[in-house]
Amino acid sequence: MTVLYKNMLKNSKKLFVDAKKVIPSGVNSPVRYFEPYPFFTKKANGSHIWDADNKKYIDFCNGYGALLLGHRRKEIISSVTKQLSKGTLYCTPTEPEIELSKLIIGNFPSIDKVRLVNTGGEATMTAIRLARGFTKKKKIIKFEGCYHGAHDSVLVKAGSGSAHNGISVSDGGLDEVSKNTLVVQYNNVEDLQKTIQKHKDVAGVIVEPILANMGLILPEKNFLSDLRKITKENNIPLIFDEVVTGFRVAPGGAQEYFGIKPDITTMAKALSNGFTISAVGGKKEIMDLLSPGGNVYQASTFAGNPISVSAAIASIKTINKIKNKLYSKLERYNLLFSTALDDMATDMKIPHQINFTASMLQIFFTNKPVTNYETSKNANAKKFKKLFQSLLKKGVFIAPSQFEVVFLSDAHTENDLNKTLDAYHYALKSVKN
Ligand SMILES: Cc1ncc(COP(=O)(O)O)c(C=O)c1O
After folding, report:
1. What CATH number is attached to the domain comprising 20?
2. What residue ranges line ligand 1, CB within 6 angstroms?
3. Are residues 290 and 232 in the same domain?
4. For the chain, how are helix, strand and coil distributed in percent, rounded to 5?
5. Tally of structural domains, the chain
6. Are both 137 and 150 inside the same structural domain?
7. Is the pTM of this model over 0.85?
8. Range list of H helices, 361-413
9. Residue 219 maps to which CATH number?
10. Which of 185, 260, 279, 328 is the most buried (most CB within 10 A)?
11. Which residues of the chain have pLDDT under 70?
């Protein structure tokens, strides 16, 4: 193993040995594991995260995209602290839930009504059930490599940890469920059209408008507008899974960024900048099917809990207040960073691709443009692993998989980015060897 693990991270090693005794594989979510063992985190602040051995890293994992505004953002901490003094869970309706719903609807014009849930997976599960309830049809179309959470209908050819661990359909998932999920190639409109023509019982099409779970894959020109056109022509609800892109690429998500209105939207992550909350929203006639008014059942003890709601309100208000500076700054930083990284790898004669947009980027070690599941899978993952380990050694934490994304946050400074470029320079040398 690398020198990093020989001489450092001793406390993390001890904790991992202990964790494995009581937690399956020692982690509570598969993407957190990496070889030989992950570092255990003690604290985080702004753009940094500290491990159990007091090693400090510049954080580009950023809660897998949740921390758009950085760790412990003051507006959010202060809002949550105020709420803590008033109680943590009531399980009755509260006024802030109305305020939050109005804020979401204000930012997302495609949404008439919104229901608050807890995780991204819960939001997409509800969105799919709504689409089925609305159309009274069965089949769902998803795209190869898109990740929509760890539930049966979408855990088919999914990205993220599922692709990283080579799991195409999870053991324990029922064939009866997965056979109702039709998988189509990302960025391939003909494939979608053929699938819709072949199957008359399609209840919905779900898509990540920017694919952030196979590394970063951008929608090609017209892909999303064609998707909208085809689904409309066939009366099929279009679900934009904006769990990553909501608030991250624009205050109104990818649908604002690309100017396309889906029928149903899911969001989580940057919605609350680090608290457990997600949302599913859409047209009134679809959303009103939810129980108790309608017959599409969805329920949760922690849905709309006052702590997460207070975090989400503060988060959206902060984003809306600073939006004119926030998004242009992140795009400028990303352009400078990605261009410098591209030049560096080119100078070092390392075959590579860099995909970037808004505040997200990823490098792939391959000669071919990365535009879908196949081309992402064909990139050299061993080289990526070396890159990750070397970056860690130099105090830069990115998500530990080729199939994740590097996320910038408002807390990153130019100094952080310069240090990170130095770290990439070091790490690319290890990839070359
Ligand atoms: C696009 C997308 N949808 C859904 C999910 C599932 O969210 P959660 O992990 O909160 O269930 C994720 C998680 O990374 C995601 O990236």
Report:
1. 3.90.1150.10
2. 64, 119-121, 124, 147-149, 160, 208, 212-213, 241, 243-244, 268
3. yes
4. 45, 15, 40
5. 2
6. yes
7. yes
8. 373-377, 381-393
9. 3.40.640.10
10. 279
11. 1-7, 167-168
